[in-house]
Amino acid sequence: MISQNYPGDGPVMIAAQKSFETGNASHILVLVPEESGNTVRNLLEKACCQYRIRKDSRDPAIVSYFKTVIRLCSTCTGTDRENG
């Protein structure tokens, strides 16, 4: 599981991982602010493409996707990290 490199195993990381595995942003979009939806979609698309090409979970595009999702969800809930 790629998300094992990132903090938390709560609903945010489960949804982010599911979106990454399927390439379907709808799993994570319900958890991020509506105004950030396009950003998340773009990051997810880039991360999925890079993973298909390189098969490296440490690719900057993948790291950026997970970190951004965590940051956006933390901002939305008012926490510093995902609480699960």
Structure explained in plain terms:
The protein is an all-alpha fold and 84 residues long. The chain has one domain (6-77). The chain is 62% helix and 0% strand. The protein is built from four helices and no strands. The protein has helices spanning 11-22, 26-29, 37-54, 60-77. It is globular.
Layout of helices and strands:
Elements: H1 11-22, H2 26-29, H3 37-54, H4 60-77
Helix pairs in contact: 1-4, 3-4
Strand tally? 0
Tell me what portion of residues adopts beta-strand conformation. under 5%
Q: What is the molecular shape?
A: globular
- Total separate domains: 1
Give, in order, the helices and strands. HHHH
Return Rg in Å. 12 Å
What is the average per-residue confidence, as pLDDT, rounded to a whole number?
A: 84
The assigned structural class equals mainly alpha
Q: Report how far the terminal alpha carbons are from each other.
A: 17 Å
Largest sheet: none
Helix share bin: 55-70%
Low-confidence stretches: 80-84
Helical stretch tally: 4
